[in-house]
Amino acid sequence: MSSSTRHAPAKPEASARERLLAAADELFYEEGIHTVGIDRVLAHAGVAKASLYSTFGSKEELVLSYLQRRAEDRYRRITGAVAGHDQPRAKILAVYDQFADRAADPKFRGCAFVNASAEGPPGDSKVRRVCRGSREWLRGVFTELAAELGVADPEQLGRQLILLYEGAMMGASMERGPAPARDARRLAETLLDAQKTGGRRKTSR
């Protein structure tokens, strides 16, 4: 048989872990963690209950893995967007640009971490720690870029930028569209311009 008539080797079927995570990612994000029972996840994944418990041990651990994968996706999206620019101002605005692209997706349902935190019980928990960790990472990105800009108070600007980002995230979730993200970008530009103007005034004294 010639090489041109050979069939490509069949791709191995996704593991039970990957099928469960894919099902959890879709259902938890679209409908909510507590709304979706474990039986629905199992049926969607086509996996037996024994596989769930041998792989994750519990629904809580599946939820944690789902959120950790969401955190990794956020890391890749944002670092990829930032890497496309040289100047810190452009890097900051690129974070909002990637958000606008994401909010334009018909499947967008807001921030997975805010949604999960709102569903959870009050007080500390593993789920809240994962959600808080992702938020702290993003605030750190904004703070580091603010420091690269040479502003007087990078911590304060970092806090302002993430509050703007999160507020727009809530708006985009309600409106199901990218308009709040684009408005947030324009407001971020205003914040950055104010820092620049303030810096010039301080220098001229």
How would you describe this protein?
The protein is mainly α and 205 residues long. It contains nine helices and no strands. The longest helix has 26 residues. It is elongated, with a radius of gyration of 21 Å.
Topology:
Layout: H1 16-31, H2 38-45, H3 49-55, H4 59-83, H5 88-103, H6 112-119, H7 126-149, H8 154-175, H9 179-204
Shape by Cα distribution? elongated
Structure class:
mainly alpha
Helix content: over 70%
Distance between the termini: 83 Å
Our estimate of the beta-strand percent is under 5%
Count of alpha and pi helical runs: 9
Counted beta strands? 0
Overall pLDDT level: 88
Order of SSEs: HHHHHHHHH
Major β-sheet, in short?
Answer: none
Provide the low-confidence segments as ranges: 1-12, 200-205
Quaternary structure: single chain
Q: Gyration radius, to the nearest Å?
A: 21 Å
In short:
With 205 residues, the protein is mainly α. It is built from 9 helices and no strands. The chain is elongated and about 60 Å long.
Structure characteristics:
205 residues, mainly alpha, 0% strand, elongated, disordered C terminus
